[in-house]
Specification:
Layout lengths: L5 H13 L2 E5 L5 H11 L2 E4 L6 H7 L2 E5 L5 H17 L3 E4 L7 H13 L4 E4 L1 H7 L18 H10 L3 E4 L4 E4 L4 E4 L12 H17 L15 H28 L5 H13 L4
Parallel strand pairs: 1-2, 1-3, 3-4, 4-5, 5-6
Antiparallel strand pairs: 6-7, 7-8
């Protein structure tokens, strides 16, 4: 059954109408699912993590998504080159700080990215946001460590880096320096597959790129990187839609008496691919 949410339909229609190209420097563990999710949304994807071509690929693309899963010095160099090119062109730039508190190396990479790039959105869980705030806690690798940050702390983080935060978990929170938006969509099954967050980060890239393309309707204007309140609203709606689609995937599994985490992953991508049919 195609997804019928008014909010969701608007997001997907913009992606389908503009077919943005998303440059993904992402985690090889989840790369295949991330690319398939982007394609299912109506966008196109290209993965390039060599410093020799990263800037050139971001110049071709309409948005760039940086995911620090399985980090390396070479990948950091590529992310800086791609991110600086995206900034220069005014393209959306999304950061997914996977396992931010797991090692000193990841913390150093993130600090370098945060100091040298302007990020449109940072998408991560509560523990990853705590690491970006410099908080020390017993890490569980790339998994949440049971941390719950006060909204005021998250707003300080958003203000510090002039960005919008998409903080995902049992409750999803979109945060800018001026507002906090809460969503309760989604399913626990999202935590039981690898790549659910990575796919959402890429989907955010597609949604932002679709909304920043020149509109087809005369008199309308494209979303601009300086429209922080509007970016926060779009990020919130996109996270909410993604959670709703995940819940729909779970409901369809239950209705068909099909169970299992890989069944859920496939159904989620299938549902995204039929969202505007």
């Amino acid at each position: 059954m195609p997804f019928s949410s008014v909010k969701g339909t608007a997001i997907f229609r913009k992606i389908h109408n503009t077919q943005p190209l998303i440059h993904l420097i992402t985690n090889p563990v989840t790369m295949n699912d991330v690319v398939n999710l982007v394609l299912a949304s109506g966008a196109a994807a290209i993965c390039a993590d060599s410093p020799l071509e990263a800037a050139e690929i971001s110049e071709l693309a309409d948005a760039t998504v940086l995911n620090i899963g399985m980090p390396s010095e070479s990948k950091l160099e590529a992310m800086l080159a791609a991110g600086k090119k995206a900034n220069a062109l005014g393209h959306p730039l999304i950061l997914d700080p996977v396992g931010a508190g797991a090692s000193e190396f990841r913390r150093r990479i993130l600090q370098t990215l945060l100091e040298n790039l302007h990020l449109t959105c940072i998408r991560g869980n509560q523990s990853e946001m705590a690491a970006l705030l410099g908080m020390s806690y017993p890490s569980r690798g790339v998994e949440e460590a049971g941390i719950c940050l006060e909204p005021a702390l998250l707003q300080k983080l958003a203000e510090r880096y002039d960005t919008v935060l998409a903080v995902t978990g049992d409750t999803d929170i979109t945060v800018s320096k001026d507002q906090v938006l809460v969503s309760h969509t989604g399913t626990p099954l999202q935590k039981r597959i690898t790549g659910s967050g990575c796919m959402l980060s890429a989907f955010l890239g597609a949604a932002l790129a679709g909304s920043m393309a020149p509109p087809a309707i005369p008199g309308k204007r494209a979303l601009r990187l300086t429209d922080t309140a509007e970016i926060a609203s779009l990020v919130h709606k996109t996270v909410e839609v993604y959670g709703s689609l995940a819940s729909q995937a779970e409901a369809e599994m239950e209705a068909s008496s099909r169970h299992g985490t890989m069944e859920f992953r496939s159904r989620l991508i299938d549902i995204v691919s039929t969202a505007v049919l």
